Records
---
Amino acid sequence: MLELNGIRKSFGKVEVLHGVNLDVRAGEVHALLGENGAGKSTLMKVLCGIIKASDGTIRIHGEDRRFANYDEAIAAGIGIVFQEFSLIPYLSAVENMFLAREIRTRLGFLDRKAMRRRARDILHRLGVDLPLTVPVASLSVAEQQFVEIAKALSLDARILILDEPTATLTPTEVERLFKVIRELRRNDVAIVFISHHLEEIFQICDRITVLRDGEYIGTCDVADVDNDRLVEMMVGRRIEQNFPPKPVLDPTAPPVLDVAEIQLKRGGPVSSFTLRKGEILGFAGLVGSGRTETVLALLGAHPAARCRMTLEGKAVRFSEPADGLAHGVGLLPENRKEKGLITSFAILPNISINNYGKYRKNQIFIDLRKELACTRDAMTQVRVKANSPRDRMDTLSGGNQQKVVLARWLNHDMKVLIFDEPTRGIDVGAKAEIYQLMRDLTARGCAIIMVSSELPEVLGVSDRVCVFRGGGIVATVDGDDLTSEKIMTYATTGKLENVA
Amino acid sequence: MSHDTNASATVQTSKDTGLSFGRVLQSPLVLPLAGLVVVSILMGIASENFFNISNIFNVLRQVSIIGILAVGMTFVILTGGIDLSVGAVMALAGTICAGLIVHMGMPGVVGLAGGLLVGLGFGLFNGALVAWGRMPAIIVTLATMGIARGLGLIYSGGYPISGLPSWISWFGIGRIGDVPVPVILMVIIYAVAWVLLQRTPFGRHVYAIGGNETAARLSGVKTQRIKLAIYAISGLTSAFAAVVLTGRLMSGQPNAGVGFELDAIAAVVLGGTAIAGGRGLILGTLIGAILLGILNNGLNLVGINPYLQDVIKGFIILLAIYIGREWR
């Protein structure tokens, strides 16, 4: 039904898909499996014509196809339900389904009756009953997903891609979704099912294709594999980045930061962890598992239902990140451009932005000379490669931009620094430098929390690792347990026992 | 000390630290300045009286009220906000000031202080709602614009309050040497604003919030306090404008300043400040305000129908912003 062969995709000089294959039959649910960044989403975007492959073929019903854009892919019978829904919240299910291709009466007015009839037919085929005329925002997440699926079907989709459809669903909603998927399968729709949750894959899928680092690893029948085998395929052996050596830490060292309770949402999981002096604690888990929200909640930048912690033995609570700064707790946010840098600023004010207490003259005015000296000093410490502290941020590489964000904290006596995805989008050399800088900081007595979605990085850098799943910590591993298999198993299933 | 090695570089750069922070933000000045020169030359050609020293001071005096309002507006727009209440707050502050003196028999100084407090109070109210109430500035200040205007009319019954002591007129039409007092006041306010924006941590934080509020907050900037402060500054400059206005009219005018918020915004934008925040210079606002004043003055001197003047001004603003968009 659908055959992708040798798909390659490069962004600039970097190849992210290295000849990936995928073949999906009519009436099957085909799992596409891989870690964060394995290339699943890129592959699906290629299939939908959102981005163009550099090489490889796409065949549908044995016919070579090439889509210039998303619309052409839809016309060829491909439907995709994105992780982030593309529904318009204030329109009803019917209005959403027929958006921009409304059925009209002969006079050019909307033929609401006809649209409602067709919508009801399609949803009936799915075995779903939901209110058609209320704004979709008032529907449950699962119901919104059904509307998305129905929308794709109303476009006569024969190939349906579901990108992590269960990520935000409750168990009962997942059951409902699976019923719908089985119904689709009976109707000979080919389904590509992307999920990180292995148990779901065993429940609903027929075959599995595994990707790793943009590489095609293999395709197999669900019946032929078990949990361990899948994790091994996903994680594999890979070329190791050079990480700085881990120093031997005193396991009895008193904690710098002791988080007794952190709960993001009322009724959600409650987590606790400790961070010791000179330690790098990794926060691993899948995207959306609550790592970033947790670190933001610690600083008071994200709401938390409960947050109880002590810093060097004293109870603290931060209501905004400025409180954290005052106590020596700072964050290097994920997504430098959106949350880290002030792009309209040059390097100098980007670094000195939270430093003014350090070189105030008369407590009111900035001591420009001292500011410049401190900034130069910080830039030297983290080795920012720039001609002048007055260079614009957009002249710097990603690695150097990250160093600027780091430099901001060096003029403070930081006790805890939180690095959220510190090496995303930066090259190998700069990564190594960042890792070394982190170790330099811990050697100076700073404790570090590192949130990372890259398993090799988590393993190579962290002294201990907290694994997140579903909004909380499910396990803390260290020593010999620090293996990618264990972390991946915790992150995908929440426990170590085999699920299959 | 290691900076001995690059001492020469440090010394050299410290020489231009006067513009250090401005360097990145400097380019926005070029265009307004060019506009000012072009418009001045055109006006000079059109009217031989234009370059008269007395006419120049006259233009500056006319500019002063909008110019002072535009200072607060610059702070607000630099953070990505907007303050629509400035004209109405100015009218209210002037009315209360006159009312305190005339109706309640207070000394002039108390009246002036009362007016300033009204401005400051409204600014703090705006700021608190924007920063802690997390409400959009455009809606908050639209509402407080109505509230301030209404309160002024209620307090005065809709009539101007006159009978002020004559020394109040010094603020509006007085002169020190040849220079009108309102112009001196305006220059002082711009100087203070310049120092605040370019030489204090507060100023950097204002730019940082406009550039990327999330990043500023996450790096430890107290964004809510800064926002409170900038709306308070805007309220205060509205009150200073009220002092000049009251001095010029020798009365509290509850109906004064209708639409002044738009002229103030136009001055800020003509001065090269990005309406989305983060980029702009207070000096640009001064140039923008003067540019606007010259247009008013020149179109009058040439004798163009006042109704047509508004149309011409509107198109000139559009043109200026279009060119500025290409420039950046």
---
Amino acid sequence: MPLIETKNLWKTYKMGTEEVNALREVSISIEKGEYVAIMGPSGSGKSTLMNLIGCLDTPTQGEYKLNNRQVSSMNDDELANIRNREIGFVFQTFNLLPRATSLHNVELPLIYNGSPADLRRKMAEEALAKVELSDRMMHKPSELSGGQRQRVAIARALVNNPSILLADEPTGNLDSKTSVDIMRLFDELHREGNTIIVVTHEQDIAKRAHRVLSILDGKIASDVRVSEEGRKIL
Amino acid sequence: MILTPVEIKDSILMALSSIRANKMRAGLTILGVMIGVASVISLASIINGLDEAMNNEIDAWGSNSFYITRYAFDVDRSKLSDEDRNRPPITVGEADAINKNCPSVDGVSPQNYYFAPGGNVVKYKNRKGNRPYLMGTWPDFIKVNSLNLQAGRFITEIDQHSSAMICVLGHDLSETLFETENPLDKVIRVNGKRFTVVGVFEEKESTLGDDNENNQVTIPLSTFEKIHPWEEELFLIARGASHEVMELAEEDIINTLRIYRNVPFNKKNNFAISTQENIKDMVNNITEYIYLAMIIITSVGLMVGGIGVMNIMLVSVTERTREICVRKAIGAKRSNILLQFLTEAVTLTGAGGVIGILFGVVVGLSVNKLIGFPLTISIFWVVVGFAVSVSVGLVSGIVPAMKAAKLDPIEALRYE
């Protein structure tokens, strides 16, 4: 049974009097443990797809099943709950709370599912250790480098043991060396069994994935599985 | 919309930390609420104090007393009918009639005051009194008003009959005129007339600042009438023989006065008789109006404070759109966000309330110290002040909090 399964997803936005179809008949299925890159030029609908997969938005038409649960018909609070438990977001601009320490930033998802304080702290410390930031727990984002900030964000995404790690241009604001570090971390997380979906328009990033979904004008243009050997050639 | 205790506690902690992060703004925001609450507390303390002081003052007059005047204390003289306007004044004759015909009354004290233009001039050697009151009365005055002498004697029947040029001084006046000298048998000048001092009153505990009894020259009523024959109108205090006969005494007085003043049986009294309780009621009526005015004035202040809080909270929501959206993206429910912003607003105004209460008490105390105004700090108003400040937070925080809770997480995340 696939982790993510969409059937004929449509997303239509109203721009004034005109209707814009951001997504048209998107049907994909992603298994647990896959490492998928979603690629496409800007305006292709990849962000819309990411919002739908990430349960930030609901489709205009079609079905979306996450972990065999029908997401397309959920209300706001149910979606919040799913986001909290099933999805770990990593954003291009990190989106950490600027005035909170790394530890508090990582604890935040646990606060919203009502975990007790001591458990929260333990889990947050473990997540920060996984991204090798145990020595930066009490630092605020402004006291960290870009790469470190993104690693805090990844720790925050992982802390709840979500089903999917959903990253939107995770290296868009980082220099190339740091980007490589972050992508190596993704590789490692994938090896540990996490399902990873990366939205990007950079070939270098997409190359690391095992499957590349190209999207163009709101439709899936190609769905390519890349073997180990293939990645080496690329 | 159900939150666990852990979520509630964390929302509060988050609210506190974001207030801490914006100290200057938070300080300015709570200033408005603080001033509003401070004015509630200080005004309420002062009005409470005034109320209590007036009640004490009335209590001090004695509960067995009747006050007989031409018009009731609370009557609006500009709205009198012609018949009422022509009521004859209360004179010594009424006092005599009560004395003779009311066995249930054991003392009558007619009291007549004279105020010279620019103040009464009372002199001894080169020392001058501080514009004292001048009162003419009967020997019963001291009994009816439950006063005591510190030295000498009070006015006697003989003084009254002979219109003696003698006087009894209030405590403060005596000190001003005589300092360390013994005032008894000394001659002072009252508006140019020579009077011999025969007694000095004990100091009277004063609740309302300057008390006339302490700064007063008391002379026999007959002497007063000789000097100021046109000052005809006076008021009477009559004392019931005991608490038990008060009703009887009131009836006796009313009947006596109706006969004396030739009131036809089908007309109402052309005089007013009040007891301590009546007067208290009147005073309480007045303070109720003052309270009402205070509540209106201070609610304007609190409303302005509340608008300030709402304004800042709206700015804060707009400014923190990204933060709110991130929180929602990682699992915050609408209720989490709503609670967080409501808590922020309530914490701001609650803190303003607490500071305002302290500030209001300090203002009240300073007014009390500086001009000796009576002051009563009541727990009731402190509680009301705090409750009101919290409600201001809830009311002015609800709109911004709902705005924040309704934010769509993709709105802020889509645009970089």
